[in-house]
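User: Predict Acetylglutamate kinase's structure from this.
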Amino acid sequence: MSQNNQPLIIKLGGAALSCSETLSKLFGAISQYKQQAQRPIVIVHGGGYLVDELMGKLNLETVKKQGLRVTPYDQIPVIAGALAGTANKLLQGQAIKDGLNAVGLSLADGGLCQVSELDPELGAVGKAAPGNSQVLQAILDTGALPIISSIGLTDQGQLMNVNADQAAVAVAGALDAELVLLSDVSGVLDGKGHLIPSLSQQQADELIEGKVITDGMIVKVQAALEAANDLGRPIEVATWRYPDKLAQLFSGESIGTQFLPQ
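Assistant:
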C-alpha cells in the first residue's frame, strides 16, 4: 500500500468488537493515521459473536454451511438488529469516545452495495456487489469515519445478512479502495502454525484441500483472493491484536498474509 489519497477499507471482525480496550487502541491508531496520512478510512464490520449470544438467549440454533451462517428469513430481523443495531452502535460509540466523528451505516445506504440472495439453502444470506458510492463519498468528504454493518437490502427491500469479509470486498469495489481484513488471527497459518507471508489462489486451494485452511477462514481467504483480482492490488489479512503495528500496516507494510492478484 502506498501513502496516497485512495480510501482504505478496514474490515473489523471477531472478538475485537467485544473488547473495548482493544477497540480504543485500534481507533487511536486509526485516528492518528487518518490525521497523518490525510486519507479517507471506512470500517466494515460483522459481529458474529453478538449474533451467537443473542441466538443463545432466544434458544435459536446456529447453523453454518461452508463457514456461512444459515439465516432463516424469520430470524433476519433479530440478526439485523444485532449487527446493524447493537454491533454498529457499540463501534460508533467507542469511535466517538476516542474522538472520531463516526457515522453508522449499512450496505444499503445510498445504494452502496447491490445485494441479492446468495443461495436459497442459506436463507436470508446475501451476495453483495459494488453499487453506488456517491453518498459514502459525500460522507468521507466531510472528514467523518463511516462504520458500515454487513446488513444489506435487496431491491425488493428484503433484509439480508452478508458475510462481513465479502461485504468489505464489495464496499472496496464500490469505492475503488485498498482493503485490509483484520481478525483474531495474525493471518493465514501453515500446518505448523507459522504465518504464510503471501498466498496465491493455487496455494490457497492446496491448503483448503489439505484441510489446513478450514471453516470461516475459507470464506475470508476466498474473499481476499477475489478482492485482489477484482481490485487488481494485494489484499492483506492481519490481526488487530497489536494496535502498535497497525500504523505500519495502514501505510503499506505487510504484517499478516498478503493475497496477490493473479
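Residues 8-186 form a domain with the Carbamate kinase fold (CATH 3.40.1160.10).
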